[in-house]
Amino acid sequence: MNEESRNWKKTLGAIADSFGQPLVAVLISLLLGAVVIMICGENVFTAYGAMIRGAFGNEFYLNDTLKRATPIIMGGLAVCIAWRSGYEAMGGEGQMILGAFCSALVAYYLPLPGFVRLLLAMLAAVVVGAAYSALSAWLYDKFEVTFIISTLMLNYIANYFASYMTNFVVKDPEALDINAVQTGKIAAEAQLAAIRPGSVHWGFVLALVAVLIAYFVFKKTTFGYKSRMGGLNAKFALYGGINARRMLYIVLLISGALAGLGGAFEALGSKYRYIDQMIFTTGYAWSGMVAALLANFNPIGTAVASILLAGLSTGGSAMQRSTIIPVEVCNMIEGIITLLMSVKLLRIAQRNHKARKVLREG
After folding, report:
1. What is the span of the domain harbouring residue 135?
2. Lowest CB count within 10 Å: 1, 226, 260, 322, which one?
3. CA distances (Å), 326 to each of 33, 39, 47, in order?
4. What is each CA distance from 253 to 72, 185, 226, 318, in whole angstroms?
5. In this structure, is residue 7 part of a structural domain?
């Protein structure tokens, strides 16, 4: 009985450790948001009620929220796969930018049937995202460049490259607004269609499929176990017959492919072109990272958290229309969540770095 009691305590402790900090972070951010709302002279329940209705109150708002959640889910899934395997990659933003940019070009320029162009556009996003992620793996493998540093720098390179190309090489010459920095609009037959008229596009469904596949692969298969061991304990992995170097590349290739595909979903199903800064300014990749942290790197939990974070943004716009509270309050709430969860992010990064350092020296 005592042994059973100790097991229950361990289980409850593990649950509290996994979800305690996320819940505290959300509660603190909502409380601080409530303080700001009261300072502005608005009723807290009225403001938050307007925000919830604006995110999930009817079919139109719900579809808007799910559309925004789609790239966040993919960015969060990319983080889940890399970080749960012990690789602190933060390059999802750059991979999403290149995925969106390349998919828009393929869908616009290739002289092929629409459905073929759509498939090739998504494939191009997968390939470029995976290849760009593999670059950070190579830098770590060859020169031991820290993932956080290399991937953050690669984000800026990708953004500036796509921005230059969109401004000076592939800018749409037929745009109604001469100042619009964007590629040509993708033909309707090559777009990622809505599930039904007025609803979210099929990219959301594909994102959920990716979530379920990732959950099964990394929770229920030997590959998931090998990926965790390869990233967190290379020496133990070697004794167990696991090629840690090979797992490094495989995991980051998969992570980058998912991030690139998330960018393609936004370009093909929402904007129907690549618009300069469309990924960088919206913060999809960072919201995805916050969602993954809130869910403790669980793919299904990440999808749920992504939808809630997307609702925070779309609901904020509705709150601004219905009350005197500006949308920046919702941005502040998400920023506070990000700030509080970054503590967990740094703890994980430090733990993994120390573990790898000990293995190298030992």
Report:
1. 44-361
2. 1
3. 11, 13, 10
4. 19, 29, 15, 38
5. no
* Model confidence pLDDT, tens digit, residues 50-94: 999 999 999 999 999 999 999 999 999 999 999 988 888 899 999
* 146 assigned to some structural domain: yes
Residue recorded with tokens 């009985």 = 1
Tokens read off for 210 = 């990716």
CATH number at residue 286: 1.10.3470
In contact, 256 and 132? CB cutoff 8 Å: yes
Q: How many residues does the chain have?
A: 362
CA distances from 310 to 135, 209, 231 (A): 30, 19, 31
Note whether 247 and 77 are within 8 A (CB).
no
For residues 176 and 186, give the distance between their C-alpha atoms in angstroms, rounded to a whole number.
Answer: 15
Give domain status of residue 278, yes or no.
Answer: yes
Which among 309, 323, 331, 233 is positioned nearest to 79, based on CA atoms? 309
The DSSP element (H or E) to which 311 belongs, if any, is helix 299-322
* CA distance linking residue 70 with residue 312, whole number of Å: 14
Number of domains into which the chain is organized: 1
- The sign of the dihedral angle between the CA atoms of 58, 60, 62, 65 is negative
Could you give the 3-state DSSP secondary structure of residue 201? Answer: strand
pTM > 0.70: yes or no: yes
**Between vectors from CA 92 to CA 138 and to CA 54, what angle results, nearest 5°?**
175
